[in-house]
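Action item from last week, closing it out:
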Amino acid sequence: MLTFRSPSFRTLQSFLRNLSPHAQLSISSNVQSFRASESSSPDMLDNIFNVFDRNLGLMAPVVAKIVDIFANNKEKQSDLLRSWNRLKIEV
């Protein structure tokens, strides 16, 4: 799991507790990879989209919490929001 200490990340962790351990690990790993610039925002969102069986409605609250995590990194936050909007249009 991630080692973020921010209140936003703790909120995400609380939200993820309702998911399977596999889903929790997958989402956390994808967020960590994006944070470390090891993956792109479209890749992260695509992977999370698959965790939620390609259901945008179930995914949206998680994305909102991830966006909050990057409040101090406006570049990543903007990139994430652009990719999220693109995904919503494509689906």
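Closing note: The chain has a mean pLDDT of 90.
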